Amino acid sequence: VTYDLVVRRGRVCDGTGMPSYVADIAVRDGRIVKIGRVDATGAALTIEAEGLWVTPGFIDIHTHYDAQLHFEPTASPSSWHGTTTVFIGNCGFTLAPAKPEDLPWLLQMLSRVEGMSPEALGQAVTFTGGSFGDFLAGFEGSIGVNVGANVGHCALRRHVMGDQASERTATADEIAQMQVLLRAALHEGAIGFTSSQLELHQAHDGRPVPSNLSSPEELVALASVLAEFDHGSIEFIPKSFLEGYADEDRELILNLWRASGKPVHLNTVTRLSQAPDGWKRSLAFATEAFADEGARLHPMFATNHQGVHFTLATTFLFDEYLTLRGALTAPPAEREATLRSPEFRAALRADLADVSGKSFTFSPKVLRVEIVHRPEHERFVGLTVAEMADALGCDPLDAFLDVSLAEGLLTQFVQAAPPDQNRLDAIEEMIRSEILTAGASDAGAHLLSFCGVDYTTRLLTEWVPRVLTFEQAVSRLTMVPAQLHGLGDRGVLRVGAAADLNVIDRTRLGSSPPRYVEDFPAKSGRFVIDADGYVATVVNGTVMMREGTPTGALPGQVLRGA
Ligand SMILES: [Zn+2]
């Protein structure tokens, strides 16, 4: 056999952003070996791509598939949208390195903060603790997509400080021990270091996540370890990201860059009505830092639609509102009594009214009833909470809580305002800035709240050709993230590169609305978004997806930074 795979006569969009051209692509042993005129005689597999587009596989820089990849090797639904490489371990949350006795705690924290079923994680995650290298070894030979793994600040802190990681700042000696652990993880193949300090991130035990208790000195000390390496990047969410970074956070971000010399990924810049100018301030800050001192600061933009679905039984969305967070994290019996109490509701009303700096707001005129569990509530499905309150003759917050309480807090709501012109204008300006990266899928996380994997498909359909050419948009999903994460042989179609590629029918390319499925361990549910137009997705030379259906092949590799 001459070639393992030949993709014939496709329009090759090579990932660099240069104009596309028609060529055959030949693959052998997982690599592209020829681009141009190829004799396909004897090839093990030929894909006829006349009239179709051939792109590098997409690289999703911000996912939380750390747990899911243990039981669902294709990283669905990302792979349905052309993604062939996922980066995990973002926002400071990783399962390694971990002492075996700490693993249950780390899993529960991940489950709470990133909205995954604790039962599913408990049943299906096969990693039982160990070094970062042990964790990576667990994926070898068992995944359909490529995975690059970051090491998270919370795991480092828990490993060194134990339970005190959730209580206080670290001593100089503890910081030095975290540096040793981080250095080891980077040697063992971690692609970078991540952390976050959002007020929103509260662990399952009601305490802040460990990284929230870190001093700026600790973060900078950890960043400095990356300076010793040829690879690596930092991903960080500062406390004040919504309003566009306070002065102390700006200083911290710049110091992370100065100490490491590595790209610093800042997640996510988005226009929210409660902080309408935050994105502009973030963009201006990063742009000036690039211009003034050549700092590599890369905020991330979102082209997914970001509607959120939730039930009060599982949501983290209200965690910024301390009254409701306290009630929802209490034991079930106490939780119900509190939610019924008039004093609690009065306090909650006051709390919800203060929306400054909040990433989520209780908006009865936008929030709709989506799924109910009692026959007498069926008439509410599709109504806004305000309309339901009118029907019940009560106040919207009372209607929201009473209907939920009658269903064991399992009533499902959706908050999905159509994007308004202000928001679309903001996204357009962000896409036009070349320092911003495409992403914000948060894939694998917040499974009962939203699904953002469609950012790839939406960038290619809703913003092409209005803002970018198809070639430029593809580059933002391929070569740019590869370059920023040191993946020299991916993200472009050239001889010698890894054969990760998509064959796309642009006449059909598109995303569907979110769909709820219960296909995870312990019958746990999630939202997925279907795609159309991805004719074939190839990972390391092997077809992994064909017309939206996994072939069963597991050609994914662990991409080690070192
Ligand atoms: Zn995240």
Question: What keywords describe this structure?
Answer:
562 residues, 24 strands, binds zinc ion, alpha/beta
Characterize this entry briefly.
By secondary structure, the protein is an alpha/beta fold. Zinc ion (ZN) is lined by residues 62, 64, 90-91, 442, 445.
Shape: globular
Radius of gyration computed on alpha carbons: 23 Å
Ligands bound to this protein structure: zinc ion
How many extended strands? 24
Number of helices: 17
Please estimate the helix content: 25-40%
Strand content: 15-25%
Q: Report, as a whole number of angstroms, the end-to-end distance.
A: 34 Å
Largest sheet: 9 strands, mixed
Unreliable runs: none
SS-based structural class?
alpha/beta
Structural account:
- This protein has 17 helices and 24 strands.
- With 562 residues, the protein is an alpha/beta fold.
- Strands 1, 2, 3, 4, 5, 17, 22, 23 and 24 form a 9-stranded mixed sheet that branches. The protein has an 8-stranded parallel sheet with strand order 6-7-8-9-10-11-12-16.
- It is globular and about 75 Å long.
- Residues 62, 64, 90-91, 442, 445 line the site of zinc ion.
List the helices and strands and how they pair.
Elements (H helix, E strand, L loop, with lengths): L4 E8 L8 E8 L2 E6 L9 E3 L4 E4 L1 E3 L22 E6 L14 H11 L4 H7 L7 H6 L8 E7 H9 L10 H16 L4 E5 L19 H11 L6 E5 L9 H14 L3 E6 L8 H16 L3 E5 L6 E3 L11 H7 L3 H9 L1 H12 L13 E5 L13 H8 L3 H11 L5 E4 L5 H12 L4 E2 L16 H8 L7 H8 L1 H6 L16 E4 L5 E2 L3 E6 L3 E5 L2 E2 L1 E6 L2 E5 L2 E2 L12
Parallel strand pairs: 1-4, 1-5, 6-7, 7-8, 8-9, 9-10, 10-11, 11-12, 12-16
Antiparallel strand pairs: 1-2, 2-3, 5-17, 13-15, 14-15, 17-22, 18-21, 19-20, 22-23, 23-24
Helix pairs in contact: 4-5, 5-6, 6-7, 12-13
The structure holds zinc ion.
Zinc ion binds next to loops.
